[in-house]
Amino acid sequence: MPDLIEKSGLKVAAELAGFIDEKVLPGTGIEADDFWRGVAGIFERFGPRNAALLAKRDAMQDQIDKWHEAHAGQAVDGTAYRAFLTEIGYLAPEPAPFAIGSTRVDDELARLAGPQLVVPILNARFLLNAANARWGSLYDALYGTDAIGSVPAGKGYDAARGAQVIGWAKEFLDRAVPLADGSWADWRGEAPVLRNASQLVGRAGDNFLLRNNGLHIELVIDAGHAVGRDDPAHLADVVLESALSTICDLEDSVAAVDAADKVAAYANWLGLMKGDLEDSFEKNGAMMTRRLNGDRSYVAPDGSSFTLPGRSLLFVRNVGHLMTTPAVRMSDGAEAPEGILDGIVTSLIALHDLRREGRFVNSRAGSIYIVKPKMHGPEEVAFTNDLFDAIEDLLGLERHQLKVGVMDEERRTSANLAACIHAVRDRIVFINTGFLDRTGDEIHTSMRAGPMVRKGEMKDAAWIKAYEDRNVQIGLACGLSGKAQIGKGMWAAPDRMADMLEQKIGHVMTGANTAWVPSPTAATLHATHYHAVDVFARQEERKAEPVAGLDALLTIPLAAGVNWSAEDIRDELDNNAQGILGYVVRWVDQGVGCSKVPDIHDIGLMEDRATLRISSQHIANWLLHGVCSADEVDAALKRMAAKVDAQNKGDPLYQPMRGREEESLAFQAARALVFEGVVQPNGYTEPLLHAFRARVKALA
């Protein structure tokens, strides 16, 4: 247990209290005694409500379990099922038509469309890379990935590859910012005459600044550059405005289990809000220091000067309602709800941005942006709205200056999305789908209905299309266009950029004005999709569509009448077990919450906790219904432990699992996630992961 000190009746870990008193509060205009008194009041007021909401989740799940048990062996009667969900309050009344009232929203969220990054807040270098990913080299993104073919071998410059990159980039310019006459391939470097003259918006020295669909393109002119000297226009690079926004994540992509972890996370957020975050590291034998980029200066065609943001607009994602933290104990001695602590501390830290005390400005509109994940239905969203009211009062903020992003990743939220949006209608700036968590909740909610289809078949299930369509349709019907982001999920394969270029334009065509990408490079490539499609025009088209119905959304993906072969079952267990172990071993043993984890086919995927939920719940479901046996699951876990060991053999910090299954806490955690999956609250992985990680840290 950490050293605790008393703060207005709370017991607060000394390192957290010291960090807030000495590092965060100075400069905010808030006295420490006033702050802690207000914090204690918030925990006293909202702690019991938080607990009651979690108890309601459990009670509702118990009712659903009993309903399925009472109808075992019967096909689900959709009408009766929907009536039952309405009776128990799972389905809430639909609000009358309304439009959100969010104001003071930055253009990156309301009036622009472009890529979004999600980055673990505990990794300073990743944070800086993501924040600086507002601008990216298209030449580098094309040359260094498989976007236009396999990456060339060797370290030297491949002239043929370079020519291919330049040709692709100039064809992109022909589509996005066409010349009045001819092709960019024939351009000789004079001031470009564009078909749409308004697309030429500025100069920076010899460089030209262009704009299409609200996004900027900078043509870098440098006759002395290795590429520019051989180009007829001395075009050395094409730099794209890329990641418009970034979510700095305290939740699914981090392993934060105690006060030390929370302070490290909060300290990085403070560094971003003050603009002084740095990270030094060794590269090619030399020490390098990474810092936040400054803004970019230009001269408009009329001779006036202007600047553009040099950094991505930053959200912070708090944890959800479920977990508690040992960093704070309430007056009754119980651990405090971690999500409430996150809301208070991350908002307090962001005051440094609002007071314009740092080197840079994050929100020019004067707002604080918080993503709130894993809320179940409108009552829980309303709780967050009330909590944010209280935090605003504590910090002396105006009402609705704290903005919220709602993750549409739980079944009860997606079924009641309009009501959820209505509950935060004056502060919402973001909704986003989350396929993996949404599928994990789909499985757990209907755990006792019967065995589910194979995991790979989930994307073809009836509920998925309704889910993805409803997210956009309801967002548009609630007036989010021009006021907030409607988002889509992650492209998980950072080494497969050709596939991303081919497929992820589908997210743009849905009318979503942002979608997640796994790296700054991917953000630059995905930005080309937003030049190809005018998203806000697409939203106008989609506004005419009827909202996809609830019946499809509530269709349970059961594998009725399927008789899998022993080989099918083994393959499915191996696939799930490998995914669980590959992620858990890094989380539990090393505290790594997000990394490129090889899948069973050795393809690197950016994984966070969401993938763990779907895989563990899927095996738990098959175990419950006798599709597989406990012995078969254990055999799969042992087989895949050997595979994961081999995949990580180059990591000097890695501790093998095979042959050490009884002593490996990582292996035991993976096993517990499966065999205790039915009883985990909503199928979440956090309680078990935190417990096993804490044991590892205690042993260290």
From TrEMBL:
The active site is at 317 (proton acceptor), 608 (proton donor). Residues 314-545 form the Malate synthase TIM barrel domain. It catalyses: glyoxylate + acetyl-CoA + H2O = (S)-malate + CoA + H(+). Keywords: Acyltransferase, Cytoplasm, Glyoxylate bypass, Magnesium, Metal-binding, Oxidation, Transferase, Tricarboxylic acid cycle. It is an enzyme of class 2 (transferase). Residues 569-649 form the Malate synthase C-terminal domain. Glyoxylate binds at residues 317, 409, 434-437. Its main location: cytoplasm. InterPro entries: Malate_synth_C_sf (IPR044856), Malate_synth_sf (IPR011076), Malate_synthase_TIM (IPR001465), Malate_synthG (IPR006253), MS_C (IPR048355), MS_N (IPR048356), MS_N_TIM-barrel_dom (IPR046363), MSG_insertion (IPR048357). Its cofactor is Mg(2+). Involved in the glycolate utilization. Catalyzes the condensation and subsequent hydrolysis of acetyl-coenzyme A (acetyl-CoA) and glyoxylate to form malate and CoA. This is Malate synthase G.
